[in-house]
Amino acid sequence: MSALIFTTVLGIILLYLGLTKNKTILSPVAITGLLITLILSLKDWGLDSKYFHDMIIFDNFSIAFNVSMIIITIIIFLFGIDYYQRMELHVAEQYALMIFALTGAFLMTSFSNLIMLFLGIEILSIPLYILAGGKKASFRSNEASFKYFMLGSFATAFFLFGIALVYGASATFYLPEIKIYLAQFHGNLPPMVMIGLLFIVIGVAFKVAVAPFHFWSPDVYEGAPTLVTAFMATVVKTAGFAAFYRLLCMGLLPLPVPLEKALWVMTGLSLLIGNLAALRQTNFKRLFAYSAIAHSGFIMLAMLSQHDTSASVLLYYTFVYSLATVPLFIIFILVKRASNGLETLYIFQGLYKKKPWIAVFTTILLVSLAGIPPTAGFMAKYQVFVLSISQGYLAISIFAILMAVVGVYYYFFVVREIYTESDHLHPIVVSKLNAGIIILCGIAVVVLGIFVWKLPI
Amino acid sequence: MKEISSAIQIIPLDSYIMLSVALFSIGLMGVLFRRNIIAVLMCLELMFNSANLLLTAFSSYHSDPAGQVFVFFIMIVAAAEVAVGLSIVVMMKRNVESVDINLLNRLKW
Amino acid sequence: MLLLILLIPFITGFTLLGVRNAAAVKVVALSSAILTLFLTVSLVFFLPATRFSVSWINFLGTDFSLGYDGISSIMLLLTNLLFPFIILAGFKHEQKQVPVLYALILFTQSALIGVFLAQNAFLFYVFWELALIPVYFILLLWGGANRRAITFKFFIYTLTGSLILLFGIIFLYQLTPSPHSTDFLAFSQLIIPANTQIWLFWILFIAFAIKMPVFPFHTWQPPTYTMASTQGVMILAGVMTKMGIYGALRFLFPIVPLGVLFWQNTVIVLSLIGVIYASIIAFRQTNLKKLIAFSSMAHISLMVAAMFVLNYYALQGLLFQVISHGVTIVALFYMVYSIEKQTGTLELPMMGGLKLHAPKMSVLFLMVVLGSIALPLTAGFVGEFLMITGLFHQSVWFALVGGITMVLGAIYMLYAYQRVMLGNKEVNYESKTDLKPLDYFFLLPLVLIILALGVYPQPIFNLVEQTVKSMQNLLTPATEVMSAWVH
Amino acid sequence: MVLLSFVFTAVLFFSLRSSGSVSATVTLFNWISIGGMNIPFAFLIDHLSLTMMLIITGVGALIHIYSIGYMHDDERVNSFFAQMNLFTFSMLLLVMGANYLVLFIGWEGVGLCSYLLIGFWFKNPAFNYAARKAFVMNRIGDLGFILGIILIFFTFKTVTFSEVFTQASTLSSGTTAITLITLFLLIGALGKSAQIPLFTWLPDAMAGPTPVSALIHAATMVTAGIYMIARSSILYNLAPITLNIIIIIGSATAIMAAITGLKQNDIKKVLAYSTVSQLGYMFIALGLGAYSTAVFHLTTHAFFKALLFLGAGSVIHAMSGEQDIRKMGGLRKKMPLTYFTFLAATLAISGIPPFSGFFSKDLILNQAFEHSILIYILALAGALLTCFYMFRLLYLVFFGDQRLDGAHPHESPGVMTIPLMILAVLSVFGGFLNIPSLFGGNSNFSTFLQTAVFSKTTEGLSMTTEIVLTLVPLSLISLVILFAYRTFVKKAVIPASDEASMSWIGKIIFNKFYFDEIYIFAFEKPFGFLSGFLFHKVENTVLDPAVDGIGKATSRLGSLIRKLQQGNMSFYLFAMVAGILLFIVFILIV
Q1: What is the ipTM of this complex?
Q2: Do both A262 and A238 map to the same domain?
Q3: 292-321 in chain C: CB under 8 A from chain D
Q4: Cis, peptide link before residue D197, omega less than 30° from 0
Q5: Domain boundaries, position A222
């Protein structure tokens, strides 16, 4: 709880620091603050502390996810030091909004009441609507923000209506109680409850960009400032899935059959659409948007193969995925700068020639995303498949595996560009700090893959 | 409080549900078919409020205040959301000189 | 000891990245490979059997356990025998980015050793993929024309197979009694219903079928071989094809014996089609490298056919042929490389009369060619004789078709030899020199091995005797079950 | 070296004789020993292999000596002798092997050497083609052979001669396994010994240097098939079907080759067809079960055919490489030594007593007569044809006037003529090794071989029949010689130089029954076409695109899905509502 409060305060402090017009102190403050939050979160480990009439429960699940999101945010801020130096205005707001969003994310991982879930989602989303439009003069940023906002609100409307329906039937917002209420039907839910649950699920599915509710994500990812995209692709996704899992686990399990089937359909569609559409992308950010949809599919697979270890796999997968994605976006920014702002995949050409070490670690990160040993990405996918196959979902597993091949294809498309020689690039400038973090993330991905296959939860 | 509650319960619950669904659908249709962003925002608001209405009615019938508390949360969040939304619209108007929802469609495929 | 063999190339590879001097890199890489070879030989022939095991991913039932049996020994021997030569092949000419290249080669070696030592399906898979990555880069960065598209196809194709294999491994894993395990031992103790085995067979086989390659999964191979650099193609043809054979032996026979028996004839027929198909196509190839690529496919196909007749002699012959084919094909590709350096082309119609300038080269080339077409007293003959014996045991027609390689091989290999070396064509060659001492250093040991194994193959047989016997025993009950199941 | 080994062999020969033992086996080491398969690297010395060894080393040594003179101008003389020695080694391995697989080593080894030596002058593409043809045809035979060996292994669980034969003698005649084995081995023999249908390589093999033709393609290698069948005589005795096939093939080859020989104008080609025809004779003998007779003919043939080739070589040498007999003539006076030795050989091959060919041919004819009159007639016809074309050759080359202007033929140096003379002596007196009882002999040779070769026993013919059978051919042969003399010496007919002037039969014969053309049409062309078809049509238009197609289809589907992302807000909203509605319907139905 103290962590939650501290982050809120941190956001406000950062806003005030913005008044001093001294940009250089912002990141140190933000990062220090986050480190303190990290420690505060960890202090609650194993306590299962409950707040607000049990509407919020900080159990190990939520702490683990919170810590993973804090770490990712710290990495993003570390990169931000360099990134925001070039920005003139509103840097403090950028930091503050991200911190606020993080607060929302904390709520999403620790709710046990639908009200808190709603609040969490909204606290996460509203700063993001603003962040996505961060480049005020840019049409694309504008469009991203607008689309995100419109579709997000639209989804929220359904989400709310769903909550209302479920509330009408069960007279409660508490997930454990809803679970008890649902159990009495033995799977034959009345249509109203069913539709209510479906709307709730769709509301959350929208946030994590699961097909067919993914339409916003490619456009928003592409249009938003890259660092924000990195944040959306990682922290928001992690929070979304944590919330999703918590929702299912605390409230809905065992899943009513029609709902479960609907979710399987979503999984399949995400795998299909995400991977296949990514295949033909030439814009790096869009590629990552679609691949994020695909990864959503894999995570859904783990989530739906209900097993004790699902949560752990979920955490591992999202963390590892984030750990590889963030540095890649940064590398993309750096390369983009060197090629007059182009965003195609071809700008990676010649990277190996110019910066061999960065290229090698980029490769490692991409390999991890593609899910090839010995990287953590592989271990994550492996565990997902172990789960789904152990639970007997053979057909969807083999489909997912084939889709993983497609995934390898487009990630290695980028790899191939990296090692293709070309000389129309300006020099790529990589600050020591950035290089250090990129390399560190690369090493972390490998180390996680070889020595750590499970994060404590 | 009791009187309000009983006053609410004069009308059967089904009618509330019907009304909310109708409101929701109207909002939905509005969102789908209007192209003026302001109108669309208003329709969104309508959808939110249909949920609010539903929650209130249920809360009253269940004699459970939680539903009404939620309504307040929703109203606050909706306000914040609309504030952000309107600012986005302003930004957009400034950039493209229009409030047509389909005008911004450069990001695709 | 096992760990040492696994790690020497790996660590050396890393060290090489820091070395600037190209010559030093090559020498260090070579000495590392020779050291590994030395250790392997002493391990395989002289030291008592060992295992190495540390606990690794406990909750997924996976230990980091290394060990070896007869089949692994053969594969290890081959790998570590070939890598010094593969490294040596680069001594002759200037190369770009030498440290990276040799580091990648050594990484490949390490991963291959891992594949052959792994006692655990998961570990096997990890090394299997790990071997692919450096090879992909070797092909991509040092390949020839059109390498981007070709390597990509190769990579994706083989990866598709391996991911399907991964599915199989996980499927087997969850079949094992709790606590689940991915040990080969645990897998082989499974009793899988026949119906399951029938489809599981292909799940497990497809990765190997692509890697070997078996007709009709071979289409990646000729272009990749043609495009690859000399060292790349040596790794591919010399060692990586054997990965497929090793994997099939490791996975299919102990784990899905019924599946093997069910699909036995299908696979044999496919392989034999491959034999004939590749041989016939090789006949009309104008590109020397492509011709040899198809010839390699024909040989490998014969080996696959021999593998599936499940016959003692065929298995012995197959394992023997693994070594002999590896050595021969590496020598062949080295010859191709030397010829290309001399003539500046790989197109057969542009060549001719090389013997006029380079008689010694021509003699060595002929010897390697003869090894490739299995002339008696070369290693190839022993292997092919035993394999055809095995095929004969299954059916005379199989043996006949398999034996046609002997004839067809003679046709196209001698055609190639004649086209390159003989004749009186006055071609404006880039250089008119014969072999240099370095070439002898490379070719003579290989030719000697080919001859020595042809004359005295017994050590290799002894090495695998036990394993092959146990494999036989393994399949005997399955045969009974199968016949009962069919009726 | 070869001379030395000849001396060793001779010593071995006499020591074996004096020790009185029948055979000796020397095992070097275990070559392949796995499971039930045990194949030692062992040598077997018995009377059959000794005979062969003597021929190989003896004739081989002479030819080596001859080659010193013949090849002295060639720049690659070292490699020539290296290859010749390799050949001798392989051939010895072939005949000394104590089991089928060691035999096979030699078998393939001689094939290789033959390939190398035919293509010795590698600058000429035609020669290289001939070499490759020889090797490939041999390989086809070898494939049959190796399958035979494998079948032997599966039948008897061993491939060692002694064990196989011991077991085989207990089997009954005509079992499928034995028939199959013998047929497979026969295929090997057909390839190696140039019988129909695998004979076309031998005439082409004349591309090699003449000593090579003499050693490999006349005296030794081509007789390997005969040796192998004689060696397996026990097996063949059990397979009457195979024996009949051998007779048919043998007689067909003998006649066909002899007819072809009539119209050839290249001195070496004539001899080559003659070789094929003589090998056909030996096959007839084999088919009749008269293995020792076949080996006897093999021996005499080795003498006189080597002599013929060496003589031809001497002529070619003298004519500076000219091989067309129409351009020769009148060499009798210029090269008397060559002429006389050549004459001796011609008489021998024609079967004029007391030259060696007479005895061996006579034996075969007798045995053929015993078997069937048809075969006898065929064989006799073959003999007459042989006689005719040999004398045609002799007359055209050595009689008449010199037809080539500007050439200055001269007698060859001593290093070449001395082997000629030694061989001439052998050709003349070689027949006395095996004088039949008719002439008061005791068939030494056949008796000598009895321990190793198991000929079918025959009842024997009556004295009068035998005398008739000796006289009839003799008289016919004399007539043929006279006819040839009239045609080529008196009328001095020179064979037409172009095809156009020939009758259609003449054309067929001149073109060697179009065997090469048929093979090219039936095998090489379709094979090439198939190769192109498979590569261009199957590999490049079906299989490869099929694989790529999966990728392309995926990719196309990808771009389709990608196009869904319209970019319009309205569309997204619609899509979302549509999605939700679908899911509502979905969960209500499911």
Answers
A1: 0.88
A2: no
A3: 312-313, 316
A4: yes
A5: 1-149+212-246
